[in-house]
Write a structure and sequence with these properties.
This protein has 80 residues and is α+β, with helices and mostly antiparallel strands. Helices cover 29% and strands 45% of the residues. The chain has one domain. The chain contains two helices and three strands, in the order βββαα. The chain has a three-stranded antiparallel β-sheet with strand order 1-2-3.
Length: 80
């Protein structure tokens, strides 16, 4: 009987300001069969510091968060 813990990630981009939502699935497997899992979510807006995040998330942020998107997001915060 061998237990193993696995983490997998998926991403979704939402809204005008390209919010990146990260979902981490933590699975517990016994002899190769999943016996339990849980999810944890994080959301990143264009002003987020993603330097400590995965290379995949950093690449998405660099591609999606153009200067125009960042400026529009900052302007929207001033309106609130």
């Amino acid at each position: 009987m061998a237990l193993e813990k696995k983490k997998t990630y998926d991403y979704e981009v939402r809204g005008d300001y390209k919010c990146i939502q990260e979902r981490c699935k933590t699975s517990i497997e016994e002899d190769g069969k999943e016996i339990s899992f849980s999810y944890h979510r994080k959301a990143f807006m264009p002003d987020a510091d993603v330097s400590a995040e995965s290379d995949e998330l950093k690449a998405m942020a660099n591609a999606l968060w153009t200067d125009d998107i960042k400026k529009a997001y900052e302007d929207s915060k001033k309106e609130d």
